[in-house]
């Protein structure tokens, strides 16, 4: 009988240790590999810059995007895929931050890779400072993104991916009938 209760106690301790280990899991963003990583939506090469974003699914798959608008489009198209965490970059430091903790400056005229006009920041004060410096824009929280319009300003596309590269890629995509 002692042997059986000792085994049960050991099993309970092991189960508690496993549960404790699972509960404390931290997730980190994966480095961007310039010249290799492509946006899951628009297929553009992703620069290792302040506009790169990524998400991790519950299955452990990482999806990378060149613009937060592309990530939103992917989430809309793949709503049944459970997402564990989303990362954005702080515009000033390029440090990865949890999207849920970030603040955003928005204006349709802000130049971003795919012209969604959203710039992410690690805190509210940094986003407000950016808006003030630009002389225009609106402050958004992560919660505000759920009701954001997600419209693109194609005239304001940032050409930082390479001169003419985006225009060519998007004109080819548009010929195929893509909505992006």
Automatic annotation (TrEMBL):
Keywords: Signal. Residues 158-180 are annotated as: Disordered. It comes from the Bacteria. PANTHER family: HTH-TYPE TRANSCRIPTIONAL REPRESSOR YCNK. This is Nitrous oxide reductase accessory protein NosL. InterPro entries: N2O_reductase_NosL. Coiled coil: none annotated. PROSITE patterns: PROKAR_LIPOPROTEIN. It comes from Paenibacillus oceani. Residues 1-20 form the signal peptide.
